[in-house]
Amino acid sequence: MAAVTSRSQVQRSPLSDTKRKIMKTAAELFAGEGYGSVGTSQISEATGYGKGALYYHIRSKGDLLYDIMTIYLEDLLSEARQILAEKRHVKERVYALSESILRAVVEDKAEMTVCFREVHALEDTRRRSVLRLHGAYLGIWRQVTDDAAREGDFRPLDNDELKALMGMYFYSFLWIGNDRTADIPALAAKFSGIIMRACHA
Amino acid sequence: MAAVTSRSQVQRSPLSDTKRKIMKTAAELFAGEGYGSVGTSQISEATGYGKGALYYHIRSKGDLLYDIMTIYLEDLLSEARQILAEKRHVKERVYALSESILRAVVEDKAEMTVCFREVHALEDTRRRSVLRLHGAYLGIWRQVTDDAAREGDFRPLDNDELKALMGMYFYSFLWIGNDRTADIPALAAKFSGIIMRACHA
DNA sequence: TCGTCGACCGACCGACCGGTATAATATCGT
DNA sequence: ACGATATTATACCGGTCGGTCGGTCGACGA
């Protein structure tokens, strides 16, 4: 099995294939039943590793959750930063950002669900750290809308409005099926269309 | 303590004050730590009742979750139906619906969080039942947008677009604090403003 | 005064929790 | 071939899980 995902990857530490497989399986279980309802024996069984092997690769169940969130959010974030650097026009930016996050929602549905739905399961320090990543992602959009407002394309948006609009994306993992890969461009067009209309000066 | 909530209540079965208190406390725990991570002993301790008393009022932990969701979603739904019956103009309808759900998010934050974030924790039959309630609520908005489209005020919206827009509301419990009671009208104005712009013909 | 009843308690049940200890096996550089 | 190291399985730990059970207690009707 190849050790790469389709989207760019921040290599914080080597991250073995085994650990990647464990994270994928765990994310699916967490997304399906909720972090608190999934036992380590269940993860062990689903991955095919015994508990010893499992705990050779993870430090704790909490760490596993934190790692899943961190890796996928950093991935999403680095893609967003790249889009911000490459595209200069509002419309392109909004479409590319929409396409980026919606592709993540479809292709890594379980992981994204965990990233946005299971934040409460983290202990305080880690929750704050993950919320910083959420905030950083929001910051990218904030910059897009502020730039657009400065150039007269968008009306100014306050934080409430921006967060409300982000909710469209952050809630979409609950209803966008992972069988909609082919629809990603259409979905991105719909989402970015809504953003463009909602923010029109 | 009065046995009524501020918003209209569907009286399916008597629903004692004790059970109401248990539901409120449990909803706060579920919202704070996630259904699966909250134990019945914890609920028992937080309510001040022993486990015997607790299980005198509830059939199971799963039932408790289901009851919370059902009651609050039916409440939200009946309010929405009433708005649909009373208001005829799009703008009024959108504002009133926004105000209704945002007030629920602020005033019954924990319960609403559970209603929209813990669906996965339900066993199949009950999950389907709760998802029907979600669908019914979506149906109200569908009718509003369809009526508006028929009269030329809105462009036609497909299901993806409607669900995307609903995500704004359904995700808002994660960032709207329960200290914003005074801001409810302003929030409703912002949300409905976005809807009106996003749907403009 | 008693019997009944709803509300409640806390000890207890077997099962399972997250996590560890120990040992067996696979891999690999030399 | 050898030792070292990486990876895995299994048995097991104390503790907690959801839920039950026998029983207590005060209110109330007869």
Automatic annotation (TrEMBL), chains A, B:
The keyword DNA-binding applies. Residues 39-58 bind DNA. InterPro entries: Homeodomain-like_sf (IPR009057), HTH-type_TetR-like_transc_reg (IPR050109), HTH_TetR (IPR001647), KstR2_TetR_C (IPR041490), Tet_transcr_reg_TetR-rel_C_sf (IPR036271). It comes from the Bacteria. Keywords: DNA-binding. PROSITE patterns: HTH_TETR_2 (PS50977). Transmembrane segments: none annotated. Residues 16-76 form the HTH tetR-type domain. This is TetR family transcriptional regulator. It comes from Jiella sonneratiae.
